[in-house]
Write a structure and sequence with these properties.
Layout lengths: L21 E2 L12 H19 L12 H9 L10 E4 L2 H12 L5 E4 L5 H9 L3 E4 L2 E2 L2 E2 L1 H13 L4 E6 L13 H13 L3 E5 L15 H4 L4 E6 L11 E4 L2 H15 L4 H14 L2 H26 L5 E2 L8 E6 L5 H10 L2 E2 L1 E2 L12 E5 L5 H22 L12
Parallel strand pairs: 1-13, 3-4, 3-7, 7-8, 8-9
Antiparallel strand pairs: 2-10, 5-6, 9-10, 11-12, 12-15, 14-15
Helix pairs in contact: 1-9, 3-4, 3-8, 5-6, 10-12
């Protein structure tokens, strides 16, 4: 494994729970919305009637019964695939490492939309690749600047063949790339011979139920698509997929077989059975409504506590899990995270989403799994820390609820 890379291929700590801690850190779905009685009956039936097959090793293929479930999910955003183009994964994180190992070469550069999902940067670095920021402007990824960046890097002798992005309700910013930008981006990727890797955990979680065409649906022959059931159903099943052009799918299938030997036949069968009996409308609709409500509660609380014209700025997303706050004058959110923990609230400092030390003045808040009755209290605790830091920066004294450097 090519793991001797710098900066270190690490991941932020996300899932601490317990005590009086209010966690805005980890991107957990709200599993209270799952139809657990119905699901438990289906799992019991699956174990009773097909357990000897479902609990056995399987081949490195997406189960035939699961293909319609995947096809329907992708089709909601204009995507299209077939069994031969699908590679099973244990969620998108495994897919990212499979892409890095199966399609990359040690030492080459992979351009990444930034701020970047830290799991992607860690996977690429573990595969020996060198993540570098793709150029952006106020509207997101900048196709024209991308052309110039690729030319510059190649002139410097760097091999650049891949662009990684999370274009819909991005982690961590919640931003979505417009259809026009998607068209321009795909055209420039073709022109510069860049393979596009589209990571799409959140695309179906738009609060108004609307979707944006996936990059894969717009150019299936030049996009490798990472899909997962973790955000639209349940992460504990550890089931996802890669949809890739046929020649690449075969390479990725061989890589995933080395990584995992075989996918979970039980998880695939369980998801296929649920889809066949119930479809996706119920869980996806429930998630959308719940997250719309919680995002609104968090954004309202932030406006009440911090105002809209102060140094902390954010945009309300139209879907997904996250709010991204940035300080206009610079702030060390790594230090603020330690202070926040003492106040009983957690978040992910922005530095985890940077590729080369950027984003230290930002922080990510996740609203998806916070009890609705605790959101305002959590934001109040957080705001006390942020206001205290402002007082400290100006040389004053923090009040009793704040924090001083």
């Amino acid at each position: 494994m090519w793991t001797d890379t710098r900066p270190e291929a690490g991941m932020p700590s996300l899932f601490e729970q317990g005590g009086d801690l209010i966690s805005f850190a980890g991107g957990l779905p709200d599993l209270d919305l799952l139809p657990l009685k119905e699901l438990s009956e289906q799992l019991a039936r699956l174990t009773r009637l097909g357990g000897r097959i479902a609990l056995q090793y399987s081949t490195p293929q997406v189960a035939r019964a699961l293909v319609p479930a995947i096809s329907e999910l992708m089709g909601r955003e204009g995507g299209r695939t077939s069994a031969g183009n699908l590679v099973p994964t244990a969620g998108s994180q495994m897919g990212l490492l499979a892409v890095g190992l199966g399609l990359g070469a040690p030492g080459e550069t992979v351009l990444c939309q930034t701020p970047a999902y830290p799991g992607a940067a860690a996977a690429f670095r573990t595969a020996g690749l060198r993540p570098a920021a793709a150029p952006e402007d106020a509207e997101g990824l900048d196709p024209q600047a991308l052309r110039a960046t690729v030319a510059r890097l190649r002139a410097e002798g760097r091999r650049v063949r891949t662009l990684y992005c999370n274009p819909t309700f991005q982690n961590p910013t919640g931003a979505t790339l417009s259809v026009e930008r998607r068209q321009e981006l795909l055209a420039v990727a073709r022109e510069t011979e860049l393979l596009v890797v589209e990571d799409n955990p959140y695309g179906l979680l738009g609060f108004d139920g609307q979707t944006v065409p996936s990059l894969q649906g717009m150019d299936p022959e030049n996009v490798v698509y990472l899909g997962t059931f973790s955000k639209v159903f349940a992460p504990g099943l550890r089931c996802g997929w890669i949809a890739a052009p046929a020649p690449l799918a075969e390479r990725l299938r061989r890589t995933s077989e080395v990584m995992a030997l075989s996918p979970s036949a039980f998880s695939q069968a369980a998801l296929a059975a649920f889809h066949a009996r119930s479809g996706w409308d119920g869980p996806i609709g429930a998630y959308r409504e719940r997250y719309r409500e919680r995002c609104g509660l968090m954004a309202d609380a932030l406006e009440s506590e911090l105002g809209t014209d102060g140094p902390w700025r954010w945009r309300r997303p139209d879907g997904g899990f996250y709010l991204w706050l940035r300080h206009t004058g610079g702030a060390d959110t790594g230090r603020l995270a330690l202070a926040a923990a003492e106040h009983g609230v957690s978040f992910v400092p922005g530095g985890h989403f940077g590729l080369d030390g950027e984003c230290d003045d930002a922080l990510r808040l996740c609203f998806s799994n916070v009890p609705r009755g605790r959101i305002a209290e959590g934001v109040s605790r957080l705001a006390a820390v942020l206001r205290g830091a402002e007082v400290a920066q100006t040389g004053g004294e923090a009040d009793g609820e704040g924090w001083a450097a």
